Amino acid sequence: MPGLGFQIPFVHLIRIRDVREHTMDIHPQPVITKDNVEIQVDGIMWVRPTVDEESIKRTFYSIDDWKRAIIQLAMTNVRQEFGDLTLDESLVARETIATNLQRILNTFGAEWGLTVSKVEIRLIDPPEDIKKAMHKQKTAEQERRSMRLLATGEFEAAQQEKLAIIQRAEGESEAVIQVAQGKAEAIRLVNEAAQQYFVGNAQALKKMEMVETSLRENAKIVITEHGISPTLLLGSLPVSVSSDENGREKQVMRE
Fold first, then answer.
1. What are the sequence ranges of the domains in the chain?
2. Which of 89, 122, 166, 221 has the smallest number of CB atoms closer than 10 Å to its CB?
3. How wide is the angle at C-alpha 8 spanned by C-alphas 2 and 12, nearest 5°?
4. Which CATH class is domain 22-132?
5. Are 67 and 22 in contact (CB under 8 A)?
6. Using an 8 Å Cβ cutoff, are 70 and 63 in contact?
7. Which 8-state DSSP code applies to residue 198?
8. Which 3 state secondary structure label does DSSP give 184?
């Protein structure tokens, strides 16, 4: 107890317990997983005697060697934890296994006056043939992903090229349509202008062209009160010369 005390030599015995954190190795050991693969596992944990009088007494009277006892308990439960998991599950479940071990060790360690602060799985070592198979599998997976990425890139490039071709074709089509619409509009405007401004003039022009053609082909010319009215005759027209009443000569075309 605290305070002044007396001890009789060779009769009384003083025992001292170090209550600091103790770093303890979980020794490497072979473990059989759920899918019957043997792996090597080791770990590390941090344990200390609980700082109260009752717990300190338990470290002396409830267990003969508390350090050895907690290490053996950890090794036994490591085998149990990995035995419930397959190899693939074990490789990704370090944190879960460590948490379960800490909980179990604290449950049993409390009877011995111990507190387990932390547990870590340090090594999970499969056999060499399993390592080679895993390496080949990983390499194949990486190659598959690489090929998928390459194919995806080529597909996206093809899609972009296809989109560019479609957009270019749509642009050309729209340009053709606009040109055609422009030409149609121009024709429409010309027709409207001709109908509105050149109906009478066109008829007069046609008559003049007919007169010119008639004169060039020796056709008969008839002058009416409405102007020249050419009549086209078929065949050649012989011409004779005669004199009028005043003695002037005139040409007469005979049909």
1. 22-132
2. 166
3. 70
4. alpha beta
5. yes
6. no
7. S
8. helix
